[in-house]
Amino acid sequence: MALRKVEEGVLKKQIASQLDINICTLCRWIKNFKLHGEAGIKGKKHPGNPRKVRDDVKNCIHNMLSLSPVKYGICKKSWNGASIQKLLKEKLNIEIHPKSIYSWLRRNGIGQELIRKWTKSS
Questions:
Q1: The whole model's pTM is what?
Q2: So where are the chain's domains?
Q3: DSSP states of 46-105 as a string?
């Protein structure tokens, strides 16, 4: 879309403004397209560590957290990283550090919301 507009004669500054990107980003896209064609503007994999909590594990955690820990035989009113870790190990044979679980809960904004729900319903 942006490259097509450049070819149509629309000003780069105007295109960048419409896309809410920096004009340098647009110029880099144009340069890469001219040098490498469509392959030059496709997304690339970025190096780094893989996710610590895979999507299937996230779904499992979310499903577990929708119920009280008591339903799983855990004698607590609310979940914590250690109890989630223990259950994942028992049910799925997956080892995840409680810190990774806490980080995932915080990023997804579900930790405190669910803890309040269980303590009210218990």
A1: 0.46
A2: 2-41, 55-121
A3: PPSPPPSS-HHHHHHHHHHHTS-GGGGT---SS--HHHHHHHHHHHH-----HHHHHHHH
